[in-house]
Amino acid sequence: MTKLRLAIVGAGPAGIYAADILLKEQRPFDVSIDLFEHLPAPYGLVRYGVAPDHPRIKGVITALREVLDRGDIRIFGNVRYGVDITLDDLKKHYNAVIFATGAIRDADLDIPGIDAQGSYGAADFVSWFDGHPDVPRTWPLEAASVAVVGVGNVALDVSRILAKHAIDLLPTEVPGNVYEILEASPVTDVHVFGRRGPAQVKFTPLELRELGELRDVDMVVYDEDFDYDEASLAAIASNKQVKVIDRVLQEWRTRPAANGAAGPASRRLHLHFWAKPVEVTTDAAGRVASLVYERTRPDGQGGVVGTGELREVPIGQLYRAVGYFGSPLPGVPFDDRHGVIPNHEGQVLEPDSNEIVPGVYATGWIKRGPVGLIGHTKSDAMETVRHLVGDQASWWQPEDPSDEAIPALLAERGVRWTDLEGWHRLDEHEIALGAPHERARIKVVPRDEMISISRGE
Ligand SMILES: Cc1cc2nc3c(=O)[nH]c(=O)nc-3n(C[C@H](O)[C@H](O)[C@H](O)COP(=O)(O)OP(=O)(O)OC[C@H]3O[C@@H](n4cnc5c(N)ncnc54)[C@H](O)[C@@H]3O)c2cc1C
């Protein structure tokens, strides 16, 4: 019987689901899978993106772990495609590769002043509060008034973590130094800005409603934002999700802090709709001083147009949460405009000719762009795997498909890779660190320490 030796790059949900689906698929050939992951821990953005105070979502890790624990997938952690291993290496040892490398950096927001000191990308802040090993360990939380630009769930995560009292994060897996810095934050007001109206936001109702339940945080919405046009009314009437969002916001309009009145809480989270950021102004030292925005109004078709009315909110920091963006991978076609690998249903395409690149596949956020929930990466993986299985005639013919070849190659290159057993060791270590403090776990953050614990060094 033929055998498919498959490399998957990226051990986030997309990569793990692809492995799981392929192993369960009815197919006329054997399969062996090696999963390469840049970090010494698997699970991608479920571990390093989903907020620490969302333990239910982090719980997806249990299902992903079950897939890895079945024992039919080899993991090579702390191995970076493009640095430790190349496309030529993969061609030499495998029949095909699936790239599932996700997205970790921020999309740009092109307005004057966006690069000022004190202006950050949400993705960097998320990586910091989730203990990603490759970002600086400190964060200068020095501002009382902060702006967050964007109306998706990442904007809500960032606003919530900024506004929430750190003590309420303590039972979670938030890293110790993150807790200390959040604890000392002088923040009193977090302002969220969205170009469009309440009926066009991308938040999900559950995440929005959660903001209204934060202890000692007043939700502040403004009556002027609720003068709905026909398109908004139609969206509320026809879409259950939009209807629930509207209901949540309408309830906040009746709270004491509505319209910026004095409320009972020591912190406030303001939602500004119809507000298009146009400039970040700075002080003499080049630090963020204010956000200038233009009021917009509905264009009658669900979009917006500027009204020409400019307003200014004094702020000391700004976070742009306008989307994530994929990164190019050496030797693999890349679409610079959308930050994805060009593909047709997961079959990677040459950018100019649109011809299929044999043996090379993509799945998850790097295939589809950085939108959608963890569950969507499963259907993504199904589509990609279906093509991989059907493309048997065009798989690569590797020179050395032996199991020993990759460990030998990595050893020769001095790569300190980690394996599944090593991940279990690190996992148990983190859980044990948390236990005396009744915390789910305490994450080990420095990469070197993660590697040493995993490798039992
Ligand atoms: C802040 C935030 C909060 C979110 N909250 C939720 C939520 O509450 N609920 C929900 O359902 N979804 C949520 N999501 C979405 C969810 O995280 C994504 O849908 C999902 O993680 C995408 O999976 P992926 O495997 O494509 O990418 P990723 O999860 O990004 O995984 C990609 C993996 O590839 C690895 N990698 C990258 N480059 C290389 C390389 N060169 N070599 C080797 N490995 C590499 C990365 O280290 C990473 O482990 C959230 C996303 C973000 C950003």
Automatic annotation (TrEMBL):
It comes from the Bacteria. Residues 5-166 form the FAD/NAD(P)-binding domain. Belongs to the ferredoxin--NADP reductase type 1 family. PANTHER family: GLUTAMATE SYNTHASE 1 [NADH], CHLOROPLASTIC-LIKE (PTHR48467). This is ferredoxin--NADP(+) reductase. GO terms for molecular function: ferredoxin-NADP+ reductase activity. NADP(+) binds at residues 195-196, 207, 372. It is an enzyme of class 1 (oxidoreductase). FAD binds at residues 14, 37, 45, 365, 372-374. Its EC number is 1.18.1.2. It catalyses: 2 reduced [2Fe-2S]-[ferredoxin] + NADP(+) + H(+) = 2 oxidized [2Fe-2S]-[ferredoxin] + NADPH. Its cofactor is FAD. The keyword Iron-sulfur does not apply. InterPro entries: FAD/NAD-bd_sf, FAD/NAD-binding_dom, Ferredox_Rdtase, Ferredox_Rdtase_adrenod. The keyword ATP-binding does not apply. Keywords: FAD, Flavoprotein, NADP, Oxidoreductase.
